[in-house]
Write a structure and sequence with these properties.
Chain A has helices spanning 24-35, 53-68, 81-89, and strands spanning 2-6, 9-13, 17-18, 40-44, 50-51, 72-76, 97-98. Chain A is an alpha/beta fold. In chain A, strand 6 (72-76), helix 3 (81-89) and strand 7 (97-98) form a beta-alpha-beta unit. The chains are: A alpha/beta (99), B alpha+beta (132).
Chain lengths: 99, 132
């Protein structure tokens, strides 16, 4: 997972599959960014082809942590049809801004 | 309407989930079934039940998880048996999506499947998909 920081913005670029093996990294990264007072965060899904419930759970969790710290989470570049269908299934756009 | 049965085994390791799902997807693509979006439904289900089996049913890493796919042209089921002591699905929410870190997996399966069955011990789950 790649993280690019510019002033108080961060762009996180996850790997191809987000699942039980790697989803815990989201929590660690978000907590590190919040500690550094970086609260405007983008998850760039350009590489992501699949996600499971542990990945969705971490998105819900990160959104909660960021909002509690008066920040904003945005998801961009959702290219995979599989991921689009999963996001639609849980109505993620009602909770997180998806561009 | 001929019954087809395919058995796959997976070691009790979360790193093996992805390659096992690929195997399942390849088998599903070859099935002659008339069920809408079956590959997506099976993929969502497999991801969740295998993750659950590894998380809750693999206290001993040397154990194996057994996956059985059964298919006719109008009905497909996926059964997963883990070597663990079972998990208490009675405490799990199936119909309401809690926007929390945990408890989303079974909700997702319930969303794409027609029926979910558990054995009493809680170490065997069977998920059914029917043509409409």
């Amino acid at each position: 997972m790649e993280t690019i920081i510019k002033k108080n913005h961060a762009r996180i670029i996850p790997e191809v599959v987000i699942d039980l093996t790697n989803s815990e990294r989201f929590r660690t990264i978000i907590n590190e960014l919040i500690k550094k007072d970086i609260k405007n965060i983008v998850f760039d899904f350009k590489n992501v082809k699949e996600i499971d419930s542990s990945g969705l759970g971490k998105i819900f969790l990160c959104n909660k942590i960021i909002k509690e710290n008066d920040g904003q989470l945005m998801i961009e570049n959702v290219k995979s049809e599989y991921v689009q269908k999963i996001f639609k299934m849980v109505d993620l756009n009602k909770i997180v801004e998806i561009k | 309407m001929k019954n087809k049965e395919i058995t796959i085994e997976m070691p009790c390791e979360k790193e093996k989930i992805s390659s096992t799902i690929k195997k399942i997807s390849e088998k599903v693509k070859k099935l002659d079934c008339h069920i809408d979006d079956l590959n997506f439904k099976i993929k969502v289900t497999s991801k969740e039940i295998l993750a659950n089996a590894v998380e809750h049913g693999c206290q001993h890493r040397e154990g194996k998880i057994k996956i059985i796919l059964e298919a006719t042209t109008s009905k497909v089921s996926i059964k997963v048996i883990d070597p663990g002591n079972g998990f208490n699905w009675n405490n799990t929410e199936f119909n309401n999506l809690a926007l929390k870190e945990k408890g989303i997996g079974l909700w997702m399966i319930n969303k794409v499947a027609n029926k979910i069955e558990f054995n009493e011990m809680g170490n065997k789950i069977t998920v059914y998909f029917y043509s409409t």
